[in-house]
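[Discussion] Sanity-checking designs against the backbone

I'm trying to build intuition for which residues belong where. Below is a structure token string of 299 positions. I'd appreciate it if someone posts a full sequence so I can compare it with mine line by line.
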């Protein structure tokens, strides 16, 4: 149902070319918002354009793009208020810490953290008078850092910290800050992550292959099986719409049953959690490595 006040409001969604971002842009437009949908290519702009969805070329690592976004919001021809920004764009690659090149660490932080912060900084001047909302798409990886999720989890833990600080800073200004924590969602992200990991893993030394080859294989298998049973992007979009529209939103929303459980795991003692995660991964190792999965480093 569309509330009449929503018709006159803007929402910015980053990373709207695919997956959760595209589904969210469409779902918000259906609710009557005018969505500024950030994409990086003309063909994606063409595909997402529709009633209530206006594409913008937005690579969140490009300062000029972010400046143009802020100008577009500030000079809205119909003087619509900015109800929310949905910081959704991100990249993923599940690679062990030793073999993820430091430039790749920096690139991942550029997109998953600094890009989000740059968008928030640029849009706060419009969000504050509107008493708008920042909705940051984190992950269960922002709560629990599994083996080979180090780089991605580091960006998402950091995004959780930024979100907490921002919520406390903005409380007096009336800007709400909400974190969305999806578990597995069926999107292109897994394929992209496996492709990115595949490229990096192919450059491992033979010692590193012995140390991590089976782990990477197991993590990819586990991710593939949880993505297969994950929720569709529309289910994530539904939760994000709630975060944008609820009168008194919660500070965090999980997406999917798996996420609702995983977010409590950090309450376990560290060593117990290590064992729980290792046990969950064991059945995904190549058959010959299953019993020795925790000994591979010493082969
Ligand atoms: N899928 C899951 O299981 C899952 C689970 C937990 C959390 N999440 C989170 O949910 C969000 C959306 O993920 P998804 O599954 O929908 O992934 P996806 O299908 O891979 O989409 C990622 C989006 O981010 C965009 N993007 C990447 N780099 C960008 C940049 N530098 N500037 C602007 N946009 C950029 C991509 O644009 P291009 O097409 O141009 O590359 C794409 O639109 C992410 O924050 C992700 O971490 C997903």
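Best answer:
Here's mine. Compare freely.
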């Amino acid at each position: 149902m569309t509330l009449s006040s929503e018709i006159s409001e803007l929402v910015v969604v980053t990373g709207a070319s695919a997956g959760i971002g595209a589904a969210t842009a469409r779902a918000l437009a259906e609710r009557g918002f005018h969505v500024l949908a950030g994409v990086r290519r003309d063909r994606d702009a063409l595909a997402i354009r529709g009633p209530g969805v206006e594409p913008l070329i937005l690579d969140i690592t490009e300062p000029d793009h972010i400046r143009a976004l802020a100008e577009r919001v500030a000079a809205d021809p119909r003087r619509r208020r900015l109800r929310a920004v949905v910081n959704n764009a991100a990249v993923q690659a599940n690679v062990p810490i030793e073999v993820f090149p430091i430039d790749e660490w920096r690139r991942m932080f550029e997109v998953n953290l600094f890009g989000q912060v740059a968008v928030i900084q640029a849009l706060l001047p419009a969000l504050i008078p509107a008493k708008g909302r920042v909705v940051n798409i984190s992950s269960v990886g922002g709560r629990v850092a599994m083996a080979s999720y180090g780089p991605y989890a580091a960006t998402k833990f950091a995004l959780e910290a930024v979100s907490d600080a921002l919520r406390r800073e903005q409380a007096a200004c009336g800007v709400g800050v909400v974190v969305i924590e999806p578990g597995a969602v069926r999107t292109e992200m897994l394929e992209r992550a496996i492709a990115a990991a595949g490229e990096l893993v192919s450059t491992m030394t033979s010692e590193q292959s012995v140390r991590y080859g089976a782990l990477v294989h197991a993590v990819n298998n586990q991710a593939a099986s949880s993505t297969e049973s994950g929720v569709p992007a529309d289910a994530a979009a539904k939760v994000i719409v709630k975060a944008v529209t609820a009168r008194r939103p919660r500070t965090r929303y999980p997406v999917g049953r798996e996420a609702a459980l995983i977010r409590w795991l950090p309450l376990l003692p560290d060593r117990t959690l290590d064992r729980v995660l290792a046990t969950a991964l064991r059945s995904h190792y190549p058959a010959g490595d299953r019993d020795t999965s925790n000994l591979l480093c010493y082969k």
